[in-house]
Amino acid sequence: MGRKQERVLTRFVMFSQMAEIANEFCALSPLRPALLPIQQMTPPVTQSAHSSPTSWLMSKSYLLLSLTSLFWAGNVVLGRFVAGKIPPMTLSFIRWSAAFLIVLPFAWKYLRKDWPAIRKQIVLMMVLSFTGITTFNCLGYWSLQYTQALNALLLQSTGPLFVALFALILFGVRLTWAQTIGITISMMGVLVILLRGDIETLSGIQFNKGDIGYTTALIIFGLYSALAAKRPLIHPLSFLAFTTGCGALFIIPLIAWEIGNGEYMTVNATTMAALVYVAIFPSTLAYLFFNRGIELIGPNRAAPFFHLIPVFGSVLAIAFLGERPHLFHIAGYALVLTGVYIAARRASATSGGNPVEPAAPT
Domains of the chain: which residue ranges? Predict the structure, then answer.
């Protein structure tokens, strides 16, 4: 890979030139005490009118979280498509080991610099790797072998509730009224889309072990989302490289068990293309974008963007599976986007209720 490509990827995650933007969002985040030390890490830099596109992108929390949802929606659709062709543990291991190898050359110098900070919170970093990389993905891919796409998308809408629950239990972060109303409205939009505007569709849904497994995976990812805001103040490439590498190592015993049971991947153009996609978009880019989005606006304000995953999933179904758009799609999209906007917007000075500040990190 040439120097030009290296500079492009490095700029993608360097936010040292965005300190003023980050500091502005830190003051507004529900996890403000965890983020304020960023001011001490990077001196203020005046933003020019000619900032690079990557610097601009990495300062736009809503766009980053929306792209994350799009990439993860594609991952859910693809995970269901390759079920039976790529075993779930094999898919998870190749996905994250490939992502680690992609990131490592660019992250190495930051890893060496950030290693003392990582070592001080090695337990937290390993928990984040195990929850956000190993468990969530292995369990999610396994569940997609047994559950319908409709069920998986319906369950996906519960993600923000688990994030809010863990943020409250672990850090005392309560939802504001705007966040509560926004999450409720966006979930209504998801239900409108998934039920195709017909409440009787619920009677035809049958839940199985795949649904239970997928729900468990979402609960675990809710824990990861809440804990991610308390990660060490290190470069995002360092964080991504450590968690992907450590998470891939945790998968090794699982893939050995899978191979021992005689489950092997079918190698063809379709499965290879699927592996390329999952290694780059829902892994490397999505996790960079997701972690940056949490850093900018906090987990509770970022959580409603989970509801965009079913929306994007239905769009992908229309585009690639030949489904026709209907009025309920438009109504559902409108509700989801309205809810996301209400929940993720900045708290108003005239708001009737103020969020309770979390305890300072220990």
Answer: 62-344
